[in-house]
Design brief:
Distance between the termini of chain B: 39 Å
Helix content of chain A: over 70%
Radius of gyration of chain A: 21 Å
Number of helices of chain B: 10
Number of helices of chain A: 10
Strand content of chain B: 15-25%
Low-confidence stretches of chain A: none
Mean pLDDT of chain A: 94
CATH architecture of the largest domain in chain B: 3-Layer(aba) Sandwich
Oligomer: heterodimer
Shape of chain A: elongated
Number of domains of chain B: 2
Helix content of chain B: 40-55%
Mean pLDDT of chain B: 88
Structural class of chain A: mainly alpha
Order of helices and strands of chain B: EEEHEEHEHHHEHEHEEHHH
Number of strands of chain B: 10
Shape of chain B: globular
Order of helices and strands of chain A: HHHHHHHHHH
Low-confidence stretches of chain B: none
Number of domains of chain A: 1
Distance between the termini of chain A: 33 Å
Largest sheet of chain A: none
Strand content of chain A: under 5%
Largest sheet of chain B: 6 strands, mixed
CATH class of the largest domain in chain B: Alpha Beta
Largest interface: A-B, 16 and 20 residues
Strand order of the largest sheet of chain B: 6-7-8-3-9-10
Radius of gyration of chain B: 19 Å
CATH topology of the largest domain in chain B: Rossmann fold
Chain lengths: 245, 254
């Protein structure tokens, strides 16, 4: 029953988020601030992880290709498919659930325990819209982060595979272009948009409705990470079934 | 003026307010006092519109809240200023931005005009010079003054204060009390203050409601509160050693 209550509360929250709008000029400033806090500040860790994950995928694939009948171009092919289909959109989103999600939960949760949300409500401001709507809009730029992750993942794979001597540069480029299906990019970005919405709203829900003090803010951040990851994984499964099977 | 009539409010079947009637007068500092759990904060939240009473009416200048249209409710919220117990200042904004915030949200004036008003209010609460500081960089007393400045910057008709001097030393607490009283008179507004602090009652208790277990147990002013023989009130007021000694001296005719 508790889960049903939380799910209902989450959808009511969404109704509030898109309800009475905050003044446009204020909203514009908030959106730019959120883009900086949520997106720009995540680029470093995303770039770092993507590059090395791409590299590891290439090395693992190369080391497991012991059959001489399998062409070396498969290293690039496998790296491309893994990075575009799963590692960039899903794996990076799980990382972002930890980084961005915890930030959202703790910032809104702190405002909750220090009565800042009550202060907004007393002033007649729709606090759900003021706090969460700019985050949702800022996260619309999240696919750019994933595009960068895809690119750097493949660069990492190229670097590891070619510099490691597993495959030549021409073979790698050839493998990269083998059987490329552009719909895989559509699939990856469709789910990225869904993950972006989840990343903005599920942690916000945990921050907005938490009760207690500083300790509970920490607990809410942990719970938020767990649930955001669960929702991302389940959504990933459903979208994959719907679009690829 | 705010009048509450027969206000009832229950949570999970437990009645917290049991039929409160009281008139909060304009131009006066109206105090709600009582022990923790007596229903003070719930009554305040009902008046702020954060809780809907289960029964009873709250009238703002003679008009019941239930008869307000959505637009009128929106207008009413712009006429309310609130000083929270912990200040509730926005951490990510400077002192100046905190005070500017309500103006920015609800007015269409140019920034220079808004800043003139912000500076005027900050000067009124003796905070000129701290405009660019963040809440974490100023003292508790200063935070309360910023909170008061933010509450009055829109020239509200009603000012609500939830334990405005909690956590402050006695001297600063008195400064805050007096500031609220001066502002109440200056702006001719209805001020409602929740407090446990008997010094505040002595300083600014012009109209006092004493709540006990969700019931209005006593009402009067600061002169009457220290003369009353009502046991529920004297038990509360003279619970501290200082006031107990004052009471003993009073009874001995000293």
């Amino acid at each position: 029953m508790n889960y049903l209550h939380s799910i209902g509360e989450y959808f009511l929250m969404l109704k509030g988020v898109f309800g009475r709008m905050t003044k446009r000029s204020v909203l514009k400033d908030l959106i730019f601030k959120e883009i900086d806090d949520l997106i720009i500040s995540s680029l470093g860790i995303v770039a770092f992880l993507s590059f090395f994950i791409g590299g590891v995928v290439a090395i693992q694939t190369a080391l497991n290709l012991t059959n001489p009948l399998i062409p070396k171009t498969l290293v690039a092919y496998a790296a491309r498919q893994s990075v575009i289909l799963e590692f960039a959109p899903t794996f990076i989103s799980i990382i972002m659930a930890g980084k961005v999600g915890s930030y959202i939960t703790s910032s809104i949760g702190s405002m909750n325990v220090t009565e800042q949300i009550d202060a907004l409500e007393v002033m007649g401001i729709n606090s759900l819209n003021y706090l969460i709507f700019p985050k949702v809009i800022a996260m619309l730029t999240y696919p750019f982060v994933i595009a960068i992750a895809m690119f750097l993942g493949i660069v990492g794979a190229y670097t590891a595979a070619v510099l490691g001597g597993f495959v030549g540069p021409d073979a790698f480029i050839e493998g990269l272009q083998d059987d490329f299906d552009p719909f895989h990019l559509t699939y990856a970005f469709v789910k990225t948009f869904l993950f972006a919405f989840i990343l903005a709203t599920v942690p916000a829900y945990h921050g907005y409705y938490m009760k207690g003090g500083a300790l509970e803010v920490g607990q809410a951040s942990t719970t938020s990470f767990v649930w955001t990851s669960v929702v991302i994984i389940v959504t990933n499964y459903i979208v994959t079934q719907l679009l690829l099977s | 003026m705010i009048e509450v009539k027969n206000i009832h409010k229950a949570f999970d079947g437990e009645e917290v307010l049991k039929g409160i009637d009281f008139v909060f007068e304009r131009g006066k500092t109206n105090l709600i006092i009582g022990q923790s759990g007596s229903g003070k904060s719930v009554l305040l939240k009902c008046m702020l519109g954060l809780f809907l009473p289960d029964q009873g009416v709250i009238e703002y200048d003679g008009k019941p809240y239930t008869e307000f249209s959505e637009d009128e409710k929106k207008d009413l919220s712009k006429q309310i200023g609130m000083v929270f117990q912990g200040g509730a200042l926005f951490d990510s904004m400077t002192v100046e931005e905190n005070v500017l915030f309500p103006l920015r949200m609800f007015t269409k004036q140019s920034r220079s005009k808004l800043m003139t008003r912000v500076n005027e209010v900050l000067k009124r609460v003796n905070l000129d010079g701290s405009e660019k500081k963040y809440p974490s960089e100023i003292s508790g007393g200063m935070q309360k003054r910023v909170s008061i400045a933010r509450a009055i910057v829109n020239r509200p008709k009603y000012l609500f204060c939830d334990e405005p001097n909690s956590g402050l030393d006695p001297k600063t607490a008195t400064v805050i009390d007096n500031l609220i009283q001066e502002i109440t008179r200056e702006y001719d507004i209805t001020t409602v203050i929740i407090t446990h602090d008997m010094n505040s009652v002595l300083e600014i208790g012009e109209n006092i409601a004493f709540l006990k277990d969700g019931v209005l147990a006593w009402k009067g002013d600061k002169d009457q509160v220290f003369k009353t023989e009502d046991e529920t009130v004297t038990d509360f007021i003279y619970s501290s050693n200082l006031f107990k000694k004052v009471r003993t001296a009073q009874l001995k005719g000293l």
